Amino acid sequence: MPSDKMKRILLDPDRVSELTPQETRQLLERARVLFDGEPNLLELTAEGRVVFIGDTHGDFEATRIVVARYLGDDRKLVFLGDYVDRGPDSKANLDYLLCLKLAYPDSLFLLQGNHEGYGVMRFCPADFWEGLDAELAGLYEQTLLRLPLAVSVGSALALHGALPDVITLSDVNRIQPGDEHWRQVVWGDWQEIDGGYLGLDAFTGRPQFGRGYFSGVMERLGKQVLVRSHQPSAPRVMYDRRCLTIFTSRAYMPLRAVAVADLGREIADTSGLLLETV
Ligand SMILES: [Mn+2]
Description:
alpha/beta; 14 strands; 30% helix; binds manganese (II) ion
């Protein structure tokens, strides 16, 4: 993609819809190379502020508002996955995020959700994926399966769904698309009941986990707070204020929420995160 076109998109995000198929392929290729250089586990230095953004699900307006309001100064933006399907503007939303990642690789981070894992685990509805021709779908699959899985910053961990049943944080770097740990991270749900692994939900097929599993893995990983998205039915705050679930898409809720962490302060529980609506 010509660099002047990229500049125009960064100045006027609506112009992302002008990308030709060839330019889309070039964007995906450049993004794939960049994501190959990022480990599954992104370890951010605990300084400045981090803004966590939940599922945007084709809500391009949400992404534009978040970027206009928060990108810059000492802030890092962490998107928690699920950029496509359900909302009206999946391709524009995702392509714009990829352009931003190429322009601001150290300020903006895109984690993988289950909707980015279509290449290894199909689901429906999948309106974005089903609307692509086979070649372009394959290129999106290859690029998005390379997205990182988790962010570690200070006492907090951020990912899309549930915790992987690993022993140490660095084990996250060995997770492969489609394996059991991957499925826990991008598909897992939490239930506010005691217990470990609670089986697959009969309706959605998603793996379910209880309080004992949460506290056990968090203790092994040395973390106080989990920030995640993915599960609209979850209470926003769970497990003694240690698990926060946020959504940043009108596809789910009338109000879009983000969580801001000021890393100059200790984040002992979710009350140390500032919730804002966008
Ligand atoms: Mn999800």
